Amino acid sequence: MGRHHRGRRPAWTGSLLVLVSSAGSDVLLGQPSRPAGQGPIFVGSAKQLFIDHRFIDSSGHVTLCVNPPVKRPEPILRSDKSWDAFRLIWFTVADDGDEVKMWYQAFDGDQWGGGRSRLCYAVSKDGLRFSKPDLGLVEYRGSRQNNILIEDIINATVFIDPHGKPEQRYKIVYTIHQDSRWSDVRVGTSSDGIHWRLPSKGLASIHADTQHAAFWDERIGKYVVYFRVHVGGDGKPHHPFVAPIESNPPVVAPKLMRPGRALGRLEMDDILAPWPTDKIRTIMTADEIDPDDSDIYTHSPYKYPYAADAYFLFPMTYQHFRPGETDVGNDGVNDGQFAASRDGIHWMRYDRKPYLERGLPGEPDFGAAQPSGWHVRRGNSLYHYYMGWPWTHGGFRRLSKEQRHSRENWGREHYGVAVQRLDGFVSVDAPYTGGWLVTPPLIFRGKELRLNINVAAMGVARVGMEDIQGSPLEGYKLDECDRMMFNDVAQLVTWRGKSDVSPLAGKPVRLRLEMRSAKLYAFQFVE
C-alpha cells in the first residue's frame, strides 16, 4: 500500500499506514508526487495544503480525506420584503473591511409567471446575521425605502478587484438574454459596490444561463471567469477540453462526456475589453463515472487566499428525471460536490460524494443544496455560503396554479451557511494503528515549523527533519520531537523544547511525519 522511504522502518511497531479519505474515499498514498529527478520544492514561508501528493514522496497507512463542512440550521437571509417575496437566487458574498457584503438576485413574484428580477444588497458584521439597508436608489411601489440596487438584472456576480482602478474596485458580471440560447455578457463597475455604471453593450455572446464567477488571479496575473458551457448530443464539447496533466489523485480527463451542461473557463488580461471567446476551455463535464442523464450545473470556484496554489470548486450536479418521474420538463435533483486544483484549470473530483447534503423532507434545502464559492473567515473557521431550495429543479412548476400563487409557497428558498475548519477541505488521515509520510526535498524560509493538525486524545504526532538522502538531522530527529497531542490550526513543532529551524533554512530538507489517530491539513514555516 505505501512504501518505506529509503528502506527505513517507522519508529512505531505494527501495521502503519497514513490514510487520506474524502469523507470515505480511499485515495491511497505512496506513489511519487512529482517526476523522477525533479529538484527540491521551494515552499518559502507560505502555507502548504495537503490536497494531493505534491508533499508526499512516500508513505504508509494513510489516506486523503475530503472533509465536508457542517451546516448551521439558521438561515442568514430570508425573503421578507415584497420585492424579494418569491425567491432569492444567485448571490455574492465578500469580506470587505469591517463588513461582510452581499449582493443577491431576487424575484418579487413567480419567476415563471411574470415575476421581476432585481439585484439587492445586504450587510453583516459577523457574517451570520445580515440586514437589508434602505439605500434610496430605486423606486418600488412608490417608495425608495428598500435595498434594491438594479432592476431587471440576472446571473450577476460581484467581485472586488485588487488590480482595478479605485473607481472600478467593484465589478459586476451579468447577462442580458439575446434569445432562448444566447446571452450577452456585460461587466459593470463601481467604486463602492452600491452605485454602479453599467455598459450599453456586451463583451461576449455565450450560451450560458447561470451565474458567472470572476476574479483577478494574482498567481498568473490575469482575470479568470468560470461559466456554463455545453457538450453536444454527439458527446463533443462546444469548447475544447483542457489537456490533462499528471496528478495524484488524477485530474478529470473524461473518456466519455455526457451531453448537456458543463463548466468552462476563460482567462484574459482585461475583463473590460472584448473577451477572447476562442480561448474558452471546458474544464469539467459529467463523464463515464457519472450516471446517464446527468450534467454539471454550476461551478462556484474559490481561490484560497490563506495558502499557496490552492483552488476549490463546488460544482452543483444535476441528475435529470426520466419520463414518468415528472410531468414537467427540465426537472431533477441537485446537490454540490467538491473538487480541488493547483492551478484552477485541472481538477480532482475525489470520491464525488455530496459536499453539502440535501435536507430532509420539510427542510428548506430538501430539493437542492447548492454551495457557492463565497467564503468568509472568522477566527479559525470559514463560513461557506449556500442556497437551499425545497423543490426539485422543476418542482415548483409542478404545482397547481393556485399553489403557485399561494404566498405559503413563496419565499421558501434561503441562504444558509456551513462552517469549515481553516484549511480543512482535505486532510491526510492516519488511523488508530498509526501511519507515516515523508515529503520530497523542500527549501524553506523561516524560524519555526507549524502544523494545522487535529490529534485525537488517544493519538500522537511527531516530525523529524532529514537531509535530501533521508538521513536524520541532529537536533531534529523524529525521536527528539516533542509529542503533539492537540487540535490546533498552528501547532508549533519543537524538538526537546526548541523550535528554531532557521539553521536549516535555504537547504533542501525532508519532513518525516508519524501520526496516530490524527488529521493533518497543512504545514508552514513561519518567518
Describe the structure using short key phrases.
single chain; 527 residues; mainly beta; five-stranded antiparallel sheet; 1% helix; disordered N terminus
Can you give a write-up of this model?
The protein is mainly beta and 527 residues long. Helices cover 1% and strands 42% of the residues. It has one helix and 36 strands. Strands 1, 2, 4, 5, 6, 31, 32, 34, 35 and 36 form a ten-stranded mixed β-sheet that branches. Strands 8, 9, 10, 11 and 12 form a five-stranded antiparallel β-sheet that branches. Strands 13, 14, 15, 16 and 17 form a five-stranded antiparallel β-sheet that branches. The longest helix has 4 residues. The relative contact order is 0.16.
Helix content range: under 10%
Low-pLDDT residue spans: 1-36
Beta-strand portion reads 35-45%
Number of strands: 36
Distance between the termini: 36 Å
> Biggest sheet, open or closed, and with what strands and sense?
10 strands, mixed
Based on CA inertia axes, which overall geometry fits? globular
| Structural class by helix and strand composition | mainly beta
Radius of gyration: 25 Å
The pLDDT mean sits at 91
Instruction: Compute the number of helices.
Output: 1
